[in-house]
Amino acid sequence: MRTSLVVAALLIWCSAPGLAQQDGAALYATQCAQCHDGDVQNRVPGRSAMQAMSFDHVLETLTSGSMSAMAKGRSDVERRAIAAFVTGKSATSASAVDAEGRCTQQAGGFPQTLDGPRWNGWGVDVNNSRFQPADMAGLTAEQVPHLRLKWTYAFPGAAVSFAPPTIVGGLLFIGGTDRKVHALDARSGCTLWTFAADAAVRAAISFAQLPGSDQFAIFFGDLRANAYAVNALTGTVIWKTKVEEHAAARITGAPTLHSGVLYVPVSSLEEAVGSQASYECCTFRGSVAALDAATGKTVWQAYTIPEVPHPTGKNARGTQLFGPSGAAVWSAPTIDPKRSAIYVATSNSYSNPPSATSDAILAFDLATGKLLWKQQATPKDAYVVACYGADKTNCPEDHGPDHDFGQSPILVTLRDDRRVLVIAQKSGVVHALDPDDGGKILWQTRIGKGGPLGGSEWGSAADQDRIYVANSDVRFTRDGTRRLDSTQGGGLFGLDLVSGKIAMEVPPVACGDRPQCSPALSAAVSLIPGVLFSGGVSGFLRAYATADGKLLWEFDTAQDFKAVNGVPAHGGAIDGPGPVIAGGVLYTNSGYGQWSGIAGNVLLAFEVEKK
């Protein structure tokens, strides 16, 4: 699920000491191939996924990014050898790409009104419903079958399309693996400005007027745990705040903005770097940081594990171990103004003893960060990537199944004014909690088998009647080739919010003889009245009627395109963020090829064909 773990898992082994004089191929063969070329049913990507990365992205990760500490013993020549061999590419010139596609007239203001059609942040609202009302969608169920491709944008120097767009005032804001935030014209895809962040920006972006100012700003986080406020019209930085000093910390979920405060979720890749036998695993704790949106100053920071990690013992090689650890927050927080609460979903523990707040839904007080209640879904789930690798030295004893939550809780007010907090888990179980009764479990329904890559991964969507859940259950062949199993995974489900019963179901769509294909539906789903949009690892984007699951429209994104910015463009697997709908236009990423699916680098925009 997590792009950050892809590079980490690769570079843990490639950075090992004692290999200084070997070239990239030898480094890979002796230290990387055991995981990446082996028959491993986990999140470690196969060789094809690594070849899809750019040289610059891997080199930056080794040199000054998340893996720089692990690679500090390697020379620049060795780092470049690793990057060149793994990607099969050489360095690119940033100034030589994306030269076309600039808007001919720079925006002096917003081309459309700010109260017009918009999709702001991850879940379109602070409830994280991923439900776009009719007036904002500008697209009806009757029009969906007539959607056609409007424009294509290709991310320069990137091989992964992994961040969702935000649409406000006729502008589009999106991050990328190229360590940039791109501001585009939402109607044409032309480029207004780009902002260089310290690291890749994977999370959705939030837009708002800067408190106490006439400036409009966008807010986001990067993979070095920096949070930013940037002028929405010029791309100039307003403030930048490091929210967590732990070396493995990053921001993967979208910060949520509410009443002048930016609530930033903090995750990590320590379950990957912690897999090295010489690493003192593990000391990271997930958290939520509340920042003043005007200044970036910290108002409070609440850790998901109250206890500070302490020495617990030593591994078989004599390395000191620590715990409890983990409980990262991968997804956007959900805001409950009625109860003055913020809800987050946590990951697995990384080490023993397992935390009582991992694989859980936590409620914190909006004003103070005090823990109000917790509801754990899977106890004793201590796990690091080594648990499914060749060297299991740092795998916790009696390790868990890695069934963390990768998506945001959804807060829904039912038609009878009762409220429910619903979320799907990588275990394949959908949970409904009572936010007005301390997170009491209302119902639980299984929709998938579950596994390290789901079950349900990135995000569900809900209206007042149902929660709509995509099932991944992606699997790989066991013949040593690391190919996707084209016969397993997939399926869409609409569950009644009152009872938890399955009210609508779409069976998996077979791959046939399509290469690098899986029926798995890992990406977040999105909803407009009467229509559910879902993208698949197969590369198909499909629209279904919510009433009966009938297929209304489909588009194969796994193809070459002509991009408005002149960059070579190709689509592939759809994973991670889901479709975004605003102002009659449907936007989707294509090319999240981390798990042996087809890699790509595009953002696609569709509109109803004009007669």
Describe the structure.
The protein is 9% helix and 30% strand. It is mainly beta and 611 residues long. Strands 10, 11, 12, 13 and 14 form a 5-stranded antiparallel sheet that branches. The chain has a 4-stranded antiparallel sheet with strand order 1-37-36-35, with no helix packed on it. A hairpin with a 5-residue loop joins strand 13 and strand 14. The longest helix is centred in the N-terminal third of the chain and has 12 residues, at 3-14. The protein is globular. The two termini are 41 Å apart. 61% of the residues are buried.
| Rg over CA atoms | 22 Å
Q: How many strands, what sense, and barrel or not for the largest sheet?
A: 5 strands, antiparallel
Measure the end-to-end span.
41 Å
The share of residues in helices is under 10%
What value does the average pLDDT take?
90
Number of helices: 8
- By oligomeric state, this entry counts as single chain
Secondary structure tally: strands: 37
Structural class, judged by helices and strands? mainly beta
Coarse shape: globular
Uncertain spans: 15-21, 93-97
- Beta strand %: 25-35%
